[in-house]
Write a structure and sequence with these properties.
The protein is mainly alpha-helical. Helices cover 48% and strands 12% of the residues. It starts with 10 loop residues before the first strand and ends with a helix.
């Protein structure tokens, strides 16, 4: 037998009607081997088979009686399960709040008039934080100065019937920037800090 007429590998034929797999000689058509098909079970059939087997299990009754229920839990655990879950935080950005470090002594720096270095810091903060449009600053300096007297600088504090929320946010941003600058300036100048401390001490004893 030459390579030309030598039979190749056996053909594999699946007979779905008969439910078997045939291995056939491609030259002679002779069935060399045959095996039964293993069909995947339908999910419903698999469940029914499991349920039947489970119902016949002698341990089913004891398993049911020993199952843990809410009534068998320790009271602390049961209470925790019954307690309502805390409400989730609302969407959106959290409100920005800033404890004002200069609120306690701002009146010493702004009354009756702003000290020159305070005025420079506030002006620079407005330009840096609130910005300038067509050569004009986007917020009024007096609004920022007013915010510097508040113990907490927030957009809600800066908002009025004449000031929109967006503008109030800009004012608060500039005021926070200025408050940080003023506080840093005071810390770097011991003489000014000493005068502020002395004035605060004098007012405390005067009350």
């Amino acid at each position: 037998m030459t390579q030309l007429n030598q039979p190749g590998p056996y053909h594999r034929h699946v007979d779905y009607e008969a439910g078997c797999i045939l291995h056939v000689n491609p030259v002679t058509g002779e069935v060399i081997a045959q095996s039964a098909m293993v069909r995947a079970k339908n999910p419903e059939e698999k469940y029914q088979a499991w349920a039947t087997e489970r119902r016949a299990d002698a341990l089913l009754v004891s398993d049911h009686s020993s199952a843990v229920t809410l009534s068998t839990f320790p009271e602390a655990v049961a209470s925790a399960l019954r307690a309502p879950k805390p409400a989730k935080a609302g969407r959106g950005r959290p409100k920005t709040s800033y404890a004002n470090p200069v609120a306690a002594y701002m009146h010493l720096l702004a009354l009756p008039d702003l000290l020159p270095w305070v005025d420079h810091i506030i002006t620079g903060s407005i330009i840096t934080s609130a910005g300038v449009t067509n050569g004009k600053i986007n917020v009024k300096a007096r609004a920022v100065i007013g915010a510097l007297f508040a113990t907490e600088i927030t957009a809600e504090v800066c908002k009025t019937s004449e000031i929109s929320l967006r503008t109030a946010q800009r004012i608060a941003k500039a005021a926070r920037h200025a408050a940080h600058g003023i506080a840093s300036y005071v810390e770097r100048h011991p003489t000014i800090k000493a005068e502020i401390d002395a004035e605060a001490l004098f007012r405390a004893f005067s009350i």
